[in-house]
Amino acid sequence: MADTLYDRLGGTETITQISADIVDLHLSNPLIAPRFAQSDTTRLKKVVSEFFITGTGGPNLYTGKDMRSVHQGMNISAIEFVAVLDDALAAMNKNGIAQREQEEVLFILYSMRADIILV
């Protein structure tokens, strides 16, 4: 049986680190940092990690809202969405994730586009 994307990414420990790096990059990215200015960073890192772990085939930890509900009314632009993808890619590069797995993660994130942009 093939390993899940979760396994190939390195499991909970690595995904938690990638998630923390993504949030840190968001907080310093001038295109999207204002969106996170009032966020509880510790909680945000936890939620992003749980979402990432669950979404890649790991344990079902995510108890948050669906993507459309979370982003409803935020009027997120396509440019902001791409900035988030760029930060995810940078975090995966920082953590030594192979190209195939990066592509799979980006595909998953991109597939959520309609539930995030201008909803």
TrEMBL record:
Q: Name one GO molecular function term.
A: metal ion binding
The entry's heme-binding residues are H71
Cofactor names: heme
Which GO terms are recorded in the biological process aspect for this UniProt protein?
Answer: oxygen transport
Q: Does the keyword Transport apply?
A: yes
Pfam entry (one): Bac_globin
**What InterPro entries does this protein's entry cite?**
Globin-like_sf, Globin/Proto, Globin_bac-like_CS, Hemoglobin_trunc
**Acetylation: present as a keyword of the record?**
no
Keyword annotations of the record: Heme, Iron, Metal-binding, Transport
The superkingdom of the source organism is Bacteria
The protein in question is named: Hemoglobin
This chain's source organism reads: Vibrio hangzhouensis
Origin organism lineage: Bacteria, Pseudomonadati, Pseudomonadota, Gammaproteobacteria, Vibrionales
